[in-house]
Amino acid sequence: MTEAKEPLLIKRYASRRLYNTETSDYVTLEDIAKVIRSGRDVKIVDLKSGDDLTRQYLLQIIAEHESKGESVLPINVLNDLVRSYTTSAQSVVPQFLAASFEMLRDGQSKMIENFGRINPMAMPGFEALQAQQEAFLKAMTGNWAGGSGPGEDDDEGGPNELDEIKRQLAELQQKLSKMNG
């Protein structure tokens, strides 16, 4: 994995060609995806205006992989992401996604050691993690259509959904810690 601290600077010319400033050659989106997969961040800027285009190109890379059948994001998660752009609570979703990926990244190095010996899909807790993420997204976005908002008690006075999700997430983290300990 590349240990560079600074992101790789990619410049987009008026012709829309992408130029790697370190290797002094033109690159494709797939080349950029390979750099990112190796652990290096990138920064893509428009040569003329200086505008940061990184987000736009990263989304394009994801869209291309999803359209090629390399699906990572389930349809319901994609729907929930689209919904998050049309609500006043949209700031919660990016924070949740960032925290989820950070948690996965933190546990990844320990889990990789075990992946060589077992099938990750059969690993205890994998399905619970997947169900937990879907439940959180559903709780955060499902109520935006007109029900009670996140963090409020439901109509029947039952337990707070967010507290339940936090509890389940804590249990999952404990299980992962025990597996990797």
From TrEMBL:
Transmembrane segments: none annotated. Residues 151-161 have a biased composition (Acidic residues). Residues 73-111 form the PHB accumulation regulatory domain. Residues 9-69 form the PHA accumulation regulator DNA-binding N-terminal domain. Residues 141-161 are annotated as: Disordered. It comes from the Bacteria. NCBIfam families: PHA_reg_PhaR. This is Polyhydroxyalkanoate synthesis repressor PhaR.
